Amino acid sequence: MSVPILDWADHARDPEGFARALGATCRKTGFFLLKGHGIPETLIAEVFRHSEQFFAQGEEAKRPLSIATNPHNRGWAYMGSESLDETSGQSDRKEAFNIGLDLSPDDPRVLAGEPFRGVNLWPDLPRFRDVMLDYFNAVWELSVALMQPVARDLGLPPHHFAADFDAPMAILRLLSYPAASGAEGEIGAGAHTDYGALTLLLTDGAPGLQVRPRGQDWQDVPHLDGAFIVNIGDCLMRWTNDIYVSTPHRVLPPPRARKSVAFFLDPNPDAQIEVLPGTGAPKYAPVSGAEYLQSRLSATYST
């Protein structure tokens, strides 16, 4: 498998051509590399540095931030708490930390108890919050902009999806995988498909990420310094009535400790995920963004 490399600068020069190129890979494997995205290298380096500091803390510092006690998909997921491969139930060998849309405790949506509308949990680390929110906002803007060529490719107005992502359930997820222990059958992250619309992933270059295109075996996803690995999630596959494909992927136990930073673009909680016009007879019933995400998260956490 060859993972295409798309240059975001081409979108400004030739939006129709970029949309065709994006659409071709979204129909085939749903994975591509995106360079030229404009997010500063200095900001990316800061995100990885602060991520390293967070995971280097002892459990006593991370436990109060546990995602297990938070109904809004925010906080720390400890080693072994997730099983992304829903068929095997095998626990993932990784830690994670989730950050969502930053809302204040007195935000009306928080006070009303709306689904996935909660406050973020923050470690007591200098500048951690500022750096993560700067990055969250930058990748949120980029990922919503990527939905414009998606819309063009599907024959829709470029800003068709804009209102569905103006206050999204998006999650910035910091990930830490220890080096492989050599134990038989261990897995960094089990085989799964992502839940949302788009995933934008950066890694530190350590190998481990693999993808399994339909009818093929597992294959390594290449690393390109500074480029995002972008893939389609199940929500967008459902929205497009299976025109786009959400491809299974996994993370093998890496030869050395591995850090990655994923941004999951999920829609607004009240967005209606209903098959798009012109995509044929609907294969899926309409569902809200919150209902769909909750159904997927419920199958992921073992505790």
Q: Strand tally, please?
A: 14
Considering DSSP H and I runs of 4 or more, what fraction of the residues is helical?
Answer: 25-40%
> In terms of structural class, how would the helical and strand content be classed?
alpha+beta
Assign the CATH topology: Jelly Rolls
The CATH architecture assignment turns out to be: Sandwich
Biggest β-sheet, characterized? 8 strands, mixed
Radius of gyration: 18 Å
Strand and helix order: EHHEHHEEHHEEEEEEHEEEEH
Mean pLDDT across residues? 95
Count of alpha/pi helices: 8
Fourth-level CATH superfamily: B-lactam Antibiotic, Isopenicillin N Synthase, Chain
Low-confidence stretches: none
Residue fraction in strands: 15-25%
> Main sheet: which strands, in order across?
1-2-10-7-12-5-4-3
Q: Per the principal axes of the C-alpha atoms, what is the gross shape?
A: globular
Question: What descriptive keywords fit this protein?
Answer:
303 residues; alpha+beta; Jelly Rolls; four-stranded antiparallel sheet; 19% strand; globular
